[in-house]
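Reminder to self: tokens first, then the designed residues, so the page reads top to bottom the way the pipeline ran.
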């Protein structure tokens, strides 16, 4: 019997993880969502009545809501937690298909994009891990996982000219550094803190609205194919969830995975 807390379960990969994990009635799955009511309704509609699922409200850019969710989690689990999967994440709407030169032309636009991605993708997770650490230390598995991105891999950006989403990439690189700090501090207590890239997954995050965006995204895919010629396209949410859970299960402090991407 294991207890999981996943952020960003309203849709996409977070919802896929919630759906997969809660199909085992022995698991207790706590899902955090900005819109608790709509997410509860979606879970009831699509997954039916699963008494092992608990949907709590939290906005990753709102410290107090994260703290409240941690307190409610403590009550649900009896004060312990095995896994945190910090999945909620954003790219700034201003930059999804812009490069650094385009985005930084206007300091107001750049500052807002940077603050937006850092707040949700980095700072929110610092508070999430900190407020839940007492529960994780009492848990059995002791794994805190951040869903990061290959966009944070500097070698990949550099070698394959991956121009798009600059503050998203920077925020995920900062997230990896923060996860390494949690590992540095807590590995001696048996806590695995690790970042994982899910690969490219067909979610709302990849949707293009205009022909120009589609063209830029196609150029990005062509550059990625230089790195991975076998790449045929994004994977499904279901297979991404399965792959992520397999990596989470096999990774450990003992194997030297702490703090890695
Ligand atoms: N899809 C990919 O190819 C890919 C590749 C690499 C990494 N990733 C990473 O994988 C994770 C999930 O991505 P996805 O593709 O599933 O994205 P998605 O479909 O856009 O879903 C994002 C999730 O994050 C939630 N979220 C956003 N801002 C939030 C906030 N301030 N507070 C709480 N929840 C918030 C969203 O909730 P709302 O419904 O309330 O907006 C939603 O549940 C992200 O960290 C992303 O960076 C994805």
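Designed residues (261 positions):
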């Amino acid at each position: 019997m294991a207890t999981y807390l996943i952020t960003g379960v309203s849709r996409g990969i977070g919802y896929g993880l919630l759906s997969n994990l809660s199909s085992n009635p022995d698991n207790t799955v706590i899902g955090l969502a900005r819109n608790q009511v709509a997410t509860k309704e979606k879970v009831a509609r699509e997954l039916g009545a699963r008494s092992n699922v608990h949907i709590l409200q939290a906005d990753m850019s709102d410290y107090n809501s994260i703290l409240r969710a941690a307190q409610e989690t403590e009550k649900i689990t009896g004060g312990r937690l095995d896994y945190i999967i910090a999945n909620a994440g954003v790219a700034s709407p201003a930059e999804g298909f812009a490069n650094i030169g385009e985005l930084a032309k206007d300091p107001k636009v750049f500052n807002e994009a940077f603050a937006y991605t850092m707040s949700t993708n980095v700072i929110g997770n610092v508070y999430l891990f900190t407020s839940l650490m007492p529960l994780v230390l009492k848990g059995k598995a002791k794994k805190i996982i951040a869903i990061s991105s290959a966009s944070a891999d500097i070698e990949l950006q550099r070698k394959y000219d991956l121009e798009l989403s600059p503050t998203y990439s920077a925020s995920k690189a900062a997230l990896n550094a923060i996860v390494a700090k949690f590992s540095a501090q807590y590995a001696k207590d048996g806590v695995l803190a690790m970042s994982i890239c899910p690969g490219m997954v067909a979610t709302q995050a990849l949707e293009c609205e205009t022909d120009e965006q589609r063209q830029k995204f196609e150029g990005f895919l062509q550059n990625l194919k230089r790195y991975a010629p076998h790449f045929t396209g994004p994977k499904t949410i279901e297979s991404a969830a399965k792959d992520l859970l397999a990596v989470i299960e096999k990774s450990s402090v003992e194997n030297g995975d702490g703090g890695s991407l």
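The CA atoms of residues 16 and 142 lie 22 Å apart.
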